Amino acid sequence: MDVRDKLGLLNEKIKKACDASGRNPEDITVVAVTKYVSNERAQEALEAGLNHLGENRDEGLDSKWEYLKDKPVWHFIGSLQSRKVKNIIDKVTYIHSLDRHSLAKEIDKRAEKPVSCFVQVNISGEESKQGLPPQEVGSFIEGLSQYENIKVAGLMTMMPNIDDEAELRGYFRKMKHLQTEIAEMNLKHAPCQELSMGMSNDFMIAIEEGATFIRVGTALVGED
Ligand SMILES: *Cc1c(COP(=O)(O)O)cnc(C)c1O
């Protein structure tokens, strides 16, 4: 199916989830995750009107960066090694995987202007997942005030591999509470208004619970 058709289906589902929860589809930004697909497919995504693209490796970002004629807004969504920061920093607008001070320090050092970051949270406590435990997020974010080039746009999470809708919904809801708590701290460097959560399998639940950025690969640009 071409990206345009997939985007049509996605938009219908976004609308449905928004209708169910009294939200406005305009408040949801779709990040098309192109990590599995070719440069040509990424170009097709741009032509379909998607201008936020996400990659989780510096190699993938480089290749698509070079190839695409029109420049999208790039999101770095994967775990990020500090030594890779210099390779990506001039290409990306958002980094979704800030989870430690050493990384914040490196971003701060390499960036020439403030970078919008999402602090990654391990909301399910699953051992294999990246991110900070929820109880450490507030103090971590307070401590980021020392870095001039870090702006905390919001929180990001990934769900564990489970199908239990009620359990997933509970995790998304906890993320919304945590985001609200941080926003209410009124920190100048951390407006924290955004929630990056929801992927191909669970974006409707994520939207119903407050996601403002959804990161969708397979269901949107998957080559099937
Ligand atoms: C791959 C990936 C996605 C997209 O996953 P799909 O299931 O293909 O939609 C979203 N977020 C992150 C961090 C990813 O690595």
Describe the structure.
With 224 residues, the protein is α/β, with parallel strands linked by helices. It has 9 helices and 8 strands. An 8-stranded parallel beta sheet has the order 7-6-5-4-3-2-1-8. It has a single domain (3-17, 27-221), classed as Alpha-Beta Barrel (TIM Barrel), CATH 3.20.20. The protein is globular. Helix 6 runs parallel beside helix 7 (165-183). Bound molecules: pyridoxal-5'-phosphate (PLP). This is Pyridoxal phosphate homeostasis protein. Residues 40-223 form the Alanine racemase N-terminal domain. One of its GO terms (molecular function) is pyridoxal phosphate binding. The modification N6-(pyridoxal phosphate)lysine is found at residue 35. It holds the Pfam family Ala_racemase_N.
**CATH architecture name:** Alpha-Beta Barrel
Measured distance between first and last alpha carbons: 6 Å
- The CATH class is Alpha Beta
- How much is the radius of gyration in Å? 17 Å
Share in helix: 40-55%
Brief write-up:
This protein is 41% helix and 18% strand.
Observed structural traits:
eight-stranded parallel β-sheet; 41% helix; binds pyridoxal-5'-phosphate; 224 residues; TIM Barrel; globular
Topology:
Elements: H1 3-21, E1 29-33, H2 39-47, E2 52-55, H3 58-67, E3 73-76, H4 85-88, E4 94-98, H5 101-110, E5 115-121, H6 134-143, E6 150-157, H7 165-183, E7 194-196, H8 203-208, E8 213-216, H9 218-221
Parallel strand pairs: 1-2, 1-8, 2-3, 3-4, 4-5, 5-6, 6-7
Helix pairs in contact: 6-7
The structure holds pyridoxal-5'-phosphate.
